[in-house]
Amino acid sequence: MEKIVFFGGFVLVGVGIAILATDHLAFGAEITGTFVSSRTLLFPLGIAAVLIGGIAVLAGSVAGMVRNQK
């Protein structure tokens, strides 16, 4: 189970990075200013995917370590 969460988290991080790259490439010319000034829906979705995926990877690795210690 922890391997599914671990690799699923990696997939989610990859999807989040792809969403952020799409946001930057597709709408980068129209958006000027700071990094957080994106006005599209893709930016918060990409950030959320990266954060949730990172938490899933961390949870999967912690669960694997706890299971191996028992």
Descriptive overview:
- With 70 residues, the chain is mainly α.
- It has helices at 2-27, 42-69.
- The protein is rod-shaped.
- The chain starts with a helix and ends with a helix.
- The chain crosses the membrane at residues 44-66.
- Keywords: Membrane, Transmembrane, Transmembrane helix.
List keywords for this structure.
membrane, 70 residues, 77% helix, mainly alpha
Produce a short descriptive summary.
Keywords: Membrane, Transmembrane, Transmembrane helix. By secondary structure, the protein is an all-alpha fold.
In terms of topology, how is this protein built?
Elements: H1 2-27, H2 42-69
Helix pairs in contact: 1-2
Poorly predicted regions: none
Strand composition percent: under 5%
Number of helices: 2
* Total number of beta strands: 0
Q: What is the percent of helical residues?
A: over 70%
What best-fitting shape do the alpha-carbon axes yield?
rod-shaped
What is the overall pLDDT average? 83
Q: From the alpha-carbon coordinates, what is the Rg to the nearest angstrom?
A: 16 Å
Secondary structure class reads mainly alpha
N- to C-terminal distance:
16 Å
- Element-by-element helix/strand order: HH
Largest sheet: none
Organism: Salipiger mangrovisoli
Protein name: DUF3185 domain-containing protein
Transmembrane segments: 44-66
Keywords: Membrane, Transmembrane, Transmembrane helix
